[in-house]
Amino acid sequence: DDVSFTVAPGTTHAIVGESGSGKTTTGRILVGLDHPTAGTVRVGDREIRSVRGARAREQRRAVQLVYQNPFGSLDPRQHVGSIIEEPLRNFRIGASAAERKAKVREILDAVALPEQYATRLPRELSGGQRQRVAIARALVIEPQLVVLDEAVSALDVTVQAQILELLDRLQRERGLTYVFISHDLAVVRQISDTVSVLKEGVQVEAGATEDVFRRPRHDYTQALLDAIPGRLYATI
Predict the structure, then answer these.
(1) For residues 113 and 74, what is the distance between their CA atoms, to the nearest angstrom?
(2) What pLDDT digit, counting tens, does each position of 89-139 carry?
């Protein structure tokens, strides 16, 4: 209810709040998996709910989702190369199998995975490597917007930092636009330009990340900040 924000191209907008606040529901609406009971969602000049047919297919290509748990979101029976190539086949990108495989090699390099990983199964990879594959799968079709739903919360701190650095580099190199869903305010402050704070399905505060963190206007936002260990405030 009353969740409203704009994400400028090439920037990151974070959605934060405790469990059950509506973060993932908002993300699912953005990618078209759920539909709002009221209001609109626009990506560029398109309103998501109104498009049909070929335009709906084009819209699905424009917004991609990276899930929290890469082990659950990757088909365990498919090799990495096939997992990344599948969106190319689905959207009929690439004139030939050779061209699609070249795109797979290119995106593997972009996410810092060696080419030989294309023949491995997800179970043969570490958690961080699996999440790199999930990111590669989302980016291989060149979406306008990437929704990252708790995309680093299942990783240990060291690997989490590596994935955040990867996301930052890819954004700078490719001009990517992110919606970053998280309950970790330290991560949100590190990666986002703007932020929305959700409580029980309602947006209680929104604005530039630095402004919200330094001068929270809502008691709930202040409570979230107070609940974070000192590592957050050491960087402010």
Answers:
(1) 16
(2) 988 898 799 999 999 999 999 999 999 999 999 999 999 999 999 999 999
